[in-house]
Design brief:
Elements: E1 2-6, H1 10-24, E2 30-34, E3 46-49, E4 52-55, E5 61-62, H2 66-74, E6 81-83, E7 91-95, E8 98-101, E9 106-107, E10 110-111, H3 114-119, H4 125-133, H5 148-156, H6 158-173, H7 182-185, H8 187-196, H9 199-226, E11 246-249, H10 254-263, E12 269-270, E13 275-281, E14 284-289, E15 308-312, E16 314-317, H11 321-328, H12 333-340, E17 344-355, H13 356-359, E18 367-369, E19 378-383, H14 384-387, E20 396-404, H15 416-431, E21 444-455, H16 461-473, E22 478-480, H17 490-508
Parallel strand pairs: 1-2, 1-16, 2-12, 7-18, 16-22
Antiparallel strand pairs: 3-4, 5-11, 6-11, 7-8, 9-10, 13-14, 14-15, 17-20, 17-21, 18-19, 19-20
Helix pairs in contact: 1-10, 1-17, 2-17, 5-6, 8-9, 11-12, 12-16
């Protein structure tokens, strides 16, 4: 089986790795990975400056989703995995230029502890009263999809949307709570509303169930250890507390990309080679790939036809959905339209390295989020040296700001110097009273732009996915993978890329 993989981001690399594993095991497999850029990895990109790891794109992945951790272990990177420093985890929201800590007990935007919610300065008295009355909400069947903003506002009011839901989801999706699908982005809350009515009651019930399962597991683990050969205390790591929320790699996420690339057949990887045409023909797929074009800078798709054509039995399109739509439109116009209709947002990261002594003491915790109603360019700022220990030399502080999103795409046209100046000014206005050294020139500044990189799961996303799946099923040998379909995170992309390859292998056997 000859397979073309279009797109060398993490999803395409995961698919190529799966095919390479099958080929090494003796399967009759050939594959070609096409990537328009001169490097693999897509938005996963790290660099080391003076011993400091700087992440230009995502800095980690969710620990609870296993696909990324499993792949790292397969690649021999288990010893390089590092947990987030959750003992120091604390997040702030900017409210009228002041940092207000998220109250204890928030679970998926839902307050579950009375006293911290009553005492927080994040919400007004009116909102706090509404949060209390939320316990009286009756069950509400989920008849249709709606936005996250509509769901949250119905339960807790507009202020919670503006000061909590919007900044949190903007930090994750780079999107707008008024556009994102509640059924896709927060399915647990939709289910809880249907069963319990009150999201607070539903979350408290889920928390009780989780504690009961943990207690039962601990009891079972204790019994098993009691039957051992005199070992007291059991597994120290298991008994040390919950798993960290985030996981990264000691040398940066680039380690995963470099290790994956090293496992592939170099002859099967074509960099700086955008795909300019795709056609379904008798017996397979014709793929045209040629020289890079200006339109190919952010995907594996070029606009100019006339490249070299090759025949493949199957194709995995792992480029962004808007690029996949361009390629597949001539094959299936309806599929192309559906893919092209998936919205995307752009993002900018600005990494600043400071001498910690000159900077002064930052607030405790991992950083802060900035609601859109604050009218700032920044969406968030992470105190990187606190989030992951051991990746920044002693005496250095790294602040990583995020800009862009659905509401501020125009920032992409600003110069690096202008973006750094904007970030420094806003940091000074937000942190200035406490961090007197924030006005000091940073030792190093790095700006990274990611155009149309983050898929947005808009209202009706699940229905769109059903329509796309039906069109793909009618085109034998075609698979889609990436962050536009069933999860935006690194583990989701790895899972989808590997699954696409496995399905094609199974269909060819």
């Amino acid at each position: 089986m000859r397979t073309a993989i279009i797109g060398g981001g993490i999803a395409g690399l995961a698919a190529a790795y799966e095919l390479e594993q099958a080929r090494a095991a003796g399967a009759s497999i050939e594959y070609t990975l096409f990537e328009a850029r001169e490097r693999l990895g897509g938005c996963l990109a790290s660099e080391i400056v003076g011993g400091t790891v700087l992440e230009r794109g995502p800095d980690s992945f969710l620990s609870e989703k296993p696909a990324a951790t499993e792949l790292c272990r397969e690649l021999g990177l288990a010893g390089e995995l590092i947990p987030s420093n959750d003992a120091a985890r604390k997040t702030y929201i900017v409210v009228k230029n002041r940092l207000v800590a998220l109250p204890d007990g928030l679970m998926f935007l839902v307050p579950t502890k009375l006293i911290p919610t009553a005492l927080t300065r994040l919400f007004s008295l009116t909102t706090k009263l509404r949060m209390g009355l939320e316990l009286l909400h009756p069950p509400r069947p989920s008849g249709h999809d709606e936005s996250v903003a509509a769901l949250v506002e119905r339960h807790f009011g507009r202020e919670v949307v503006e000061r909590l839901a919007d900044p949190l989801l903007s930090g994750i999706f780079g999107g707008d709570a008024a556009q994102l699908s509640a059924r896709t982005v927060l399915p647990r809350l939709v289910e809880m509303e249907s069963e319990y009515g009150s999201l607070t009651r539903g979350m408290l019930a889920a928390h009780r169930q989780m504690r009961a399962r943990a207690k039962a597991a601990a009891k079972k683990n204790g019994a098993a250890n009691g039957n051992g050969h005199g070992q007291a205390g059991g597994n120290s790591r298991a008994g040390s507390g919950a798993r960290s929320i985030f996981t990264s790699l000691r040398g940066g996420m680039q380690q995963l990309i470099d290790t994956l690339a090293a496992r592939l057949d170099p002859a099967s990887v074509r960099l700086a080679t955008p795909v300019s045409g795709l056609a379904k023909v008798d017996g397979g797929w014709r793929v045209e790939a040629g020289a890079p074009t200006s339109a190919a800078a952010d995907s594996s798709v070029g606009c100019e036809a006339g490249g070299n054509a090759e025949m493949y039995d199957a194709v995995i399109v792992a480029s962004p959905a808007w690029a996949a739509g361009t390629l597949l439109g001539p094959v299936d116009a309806e599929l192309g339209e559906e893919l092209g209709a998936i919205p995307y947002s752009s993002s900018i990261t600005v990494n600043l390295i400071y001498d910690e002594a000159k900077l002064g003491r930052l607030p405790d915790g991992f950083g802060f989020l900035v609601p859109a109603v604050e009218g700032r360019a920044m969406l968030a700022c992470t105190f990187v040296h606190r989030k992951f220990l051991g990746r920044t030399p002693p005496g250095k502080a790294v602040l990583r700001a995020f800009l862009g999103g659905m509401k501020n795409e125009a920032l992409l046209t600003e110069t690096d110097a202008a973006l750094v100046a904007t970030v420094r000014r806003e940091l000074g206005e937000i942190l200035g009273e406490d961090v007197v050294g924030i006005g000091v020139e940073p030792e190093h500044a790095r700006v990274s732009r990611w155009r149309r990189a983050m898929a947005q799961y808009a209202v009706g996303h699940q229905e769109r996915m059903e329509r796309i799946a039906a069109r793909v099923a009618a085109l034998p040998g075609l698979r889609l993978a990436g962050n536009a379909y069933d999860g935006i995170g690194i583990p989701d992309c790895i899972r989808l890329g590997r699954r696409a390859a496995k399905e094609l292998l199974a269909s060819s056997s």
